[in-house]
Amino acid sequence: MTQNSEALDVVLVGAGIMSATLAVLLKELDPSLKLEIVEMRDGGAQESSNPWNNAGTGHAGLCELNYTPQSADGSVEISKAVAINSQFEVSKQFWAYMVGREGFDNPSDFINPVPHISFVRGKDVPFLKKRHELLSAHHTFEDMVYTEDRNTIAEWAPLMMPGRDSSEVVAATRSERGTDVNFGALTQKLLDYLSKQPGVTITYSHKVIGLKRQGQGWSVKVGHRSNIDSRELQAKFVFLGAGGGALPLLQLSGIEEGKGFGGFPVSGQWLRCDNPEVVNQHQAKVYSQAEVGAPPMSVPHLDTRVVDGKKSLLFGPYAGFTTKFLKFGSFFDLPCSIRLANIGPMLAVARDNMDLTKYLVREVRQSMDDRLASLRKFYPQAKAEDWKLAIAGQRVQIIKKDEKKGGVLQFGTELVAAKDGTIAALLGASPGASVTVPIMLGLIERCFPERYKSADWTAKLGEIFQAREKQLQTDADAYRTVAKQSAERLGLAG
């Protein structure tokens, strides 16, 4: 049974960090907006935004080696790391702006200082040294320290050196400005804040079952996940921020801009340690190089996590494969996403990514002993009884058309919007949540162009953001000022 339609300014699908951030930004810019968030689960942040479904790194390029690729001639490209670092500082400005508002009195509930370390062995040492040389010369990474001294590394990461072969050549970089972010807690704070604002509805246990153009906007049919009741929402703008579920919704919309996109789902697992005797010896996020053929999201790392005030360690991720697009999704997600417009790119990606296929097969076949052997490359004296296997969230990597190759597998995030700006979808994964704020600002600029340039929205954005990513990348003084102010407000300053 379908109820009468409701008129809204904005409908957001998915109650994760993306939708919550966009909704708060829009309400700050225009408190009169009437919006609704529709979530299939019975609460917010239950998929990729859940703290145990992601590494919570606060991606800032400080330790993630895949953001500084090395070319065949030995040169290292740092532009992506600089861009992501600046984008993360934009996110921190927004979170700092929210501190003091209802529910945001204790930023340590969602963000805590945790040093970020890059650790390499043997043949990768020259790469790390070159990476440090280039990055530390830029103001965004000026505090980064490099060492090949085993005693220094042992001080930075006490679990990682005892038991290691004394002949093994090792090196590490360290930045004390790193953070651990509980995106689940942050999302819930944003949702709670929204729920107290006039004109905001958050609907759980419902899913979008129909999406079609109507007039200058969209008709969104929403149904309860366990019965036949449904209702129509009439929205001027629709945001598809449902993580892996965004691709099927984009296809449902039928917009020309969404044709040709496909998705490659990758699942993940972690080893998790809650033993205080072990956990308290490691206060860092330590990243190393990925195995050959591994997707960037599978870069091995040993992470301090702070969830609900309690510290744990995560090691992984160990990749796997499933046809689900969401952790709580359906095994039919992948086959049901195949269309005439995307089958060519998907087949081209399958042809050109055999190393990835072999890697995934190898990962799926791993035993617990195999996983522990990988852990011991980081933590040589790790004991099996201290670690348990935990299931991570789903990631859906983007497959898109390419004139030369037919199709490419893209590791990153991409905003797909209709030409008229009435609907947009966010696809992809890492760096994802850490750069949510600049991504959503880009969406607002693209889909609300006239209002974005208006005097009132410009003034409000200037109040929230002292500097945006392009200025932060080029203006050292602005970067230092903004980073210092955000750190102080978020309780990250030492």
What does this protein structure show overall?
The chain is α+β, with helices and mostly antiparallel strands and 494 residues long. It has a single domain (2-477), classed as FAD/NAD(P)-binding domain. The chain contains 16 helices and 20 strands. The chain has helices at residues 17-29, 79-98, 125-135, 150-156, 183-195, 246-253, 276-279, 333-336, 340-352, 354-364, 368-375, 436-447, 449-452, 455-464, 469-474, 476-489, and strands at 2-13, 35-38, 111-113, 116-121, 145-147, 170-175, 179-181, 200-203, 206-214, 217-224, 230-240, 262-273, 285-287, 301-307, 310-320, 388-391, 395-402, 406-410, 413-417, 423-428. Strands 4, 5, 6, 12, 13, 14, 15, 16, 17 and 18 form a ten-stranded mixed β-sheet that branches. Strands 1, 2, 8, 9, 10, 11, 19 and 20 form an eight-stranded mixed β-sheet that branches. Helix 1 runs parallel beside helix 5 (183-195), helix 1 (17-29) crosses helix 12 and helix 2 packs across helix 16 (476-489). The model has no long low-confidence stretch (mean pLDDT 92).
What is shown here, in short?
The chain has helices at 17-29, 79-98, 125-135, 150-156, 183-195, 246-253, 276-279, 333-336, 340-352, 354-364, 368-375, 436-447, 449-452, 455-464, 469-474, 476-489; strands at residues 2-13, 35-38, 111-113, 116-121, 145-147, 170-175, 179-181, 200-203, 206-214, 217-224, 230-240, 262-273, 285-287, 301-307, 310-320, 388-391, 395-402, 406-410, 413-417, 423-428. With 494 residues, it is of the alpha+beta class. The chain has a single domain (2-477), classed as 3-Layer(bba) Sandwich (FAD/NAD(P)-binding domain), CATH 3.50.50.
